[in-house]
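_Full entry_
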Amino acid sequence: MKARPPARLGSARRLTLAGAFGFARLIVELGVLSSFAFSLALFVAAIAQAYVTIRAAFAELGQPDTTKRLIVAAVEQADTLLIGMALLIISFGLQALFVGRLQNVPPWLHIDSFDDLKQKLIGIVILALGVNFFSVALKWTGSDILGYGLAISAVILAVGAYSVILTRQGRSPALPPEEPDDAA
């Protein structure tokens, strides 16, 4: 029996598929823009909050709690900036994966696969959880912070284990060492 060549798609069907892919790409681009907008909004909010907090602190210099309030505000700002950075990385990553690579992006922000994007985000999530715990610990007035710390530790360990598994899946198995050639 002679194999038949694959059936060709009709022009109407090709247009339908092209339209569907074009629409999906548009939706992803809207997601990229919304993630970028949230990232910018968080950066601007963090800057504005820093201004307000520092201005208020200068008015209360010498007060006993001023330094602690500045430290808490600085840690909370770091948390906000980390979340903004995560959204920025998501934005750049989706852009690179679905739409096209951006120019003038630093090398550490080049994203070639979903695994790259996940690894970059995992690092920021772990850091943000640590900063969040530090912020809560600075303001904690109760005596039992251990439960909260253990909960965050469990999440960090789970995310870290996932990262290790993700890294090992992406790695090709090591080739066995070559044996010396005795024929020489």
Remarks:
- The mean pLDDT is 81.
- The first helix runs from residue 11 to 59.
- The helical segments are 11-59, 66-99, 114-139, 146-170.
